[in-house]
Amino acid sequence: MVAAGTLASAGPALVLSAVAGAAVVLGLLVPLAATMAVVAVIAALALSEPDPVVAGIAGLAAAGYLVVRHADGDAAAALTMPTVLGALGASVVAVLGATVPFALPWVPLVAPLAVVAAYVLVLDRYVGHPGRGRPLR
User: Which residues cross the membrane (predicted)?
Assistant: First the structure.
């Protein structure tokens, strides 16, 4: 995570990468330091503007590091298949979103409708019909 964040670092980003490296070591004792290490790497990436693939690798490593570091008990048990697939999927989508140029001028018009539709779909199972306790559909 820190190595990927340090590849294109210079100046303040390099200082943040050093802080992140120290926080990773301190994170072995204090879980909050692990979170601060990830935040420092994110800041270093934001200042250094690396390639999207490098940022994706750093993000994937940061997600895995946080899952293992904040796991209760057995750290290997925290890395379940849904956790790994979710992290990989998010990394792939982020890298593709940053590398593939899309020029869709109608997206800002459709985005609010898509957000409302997703909101309704997610909450539909929790909002029941009054008196019956079932979802609306």
Answer: 13-46, 52-68, 75-100, 106-127
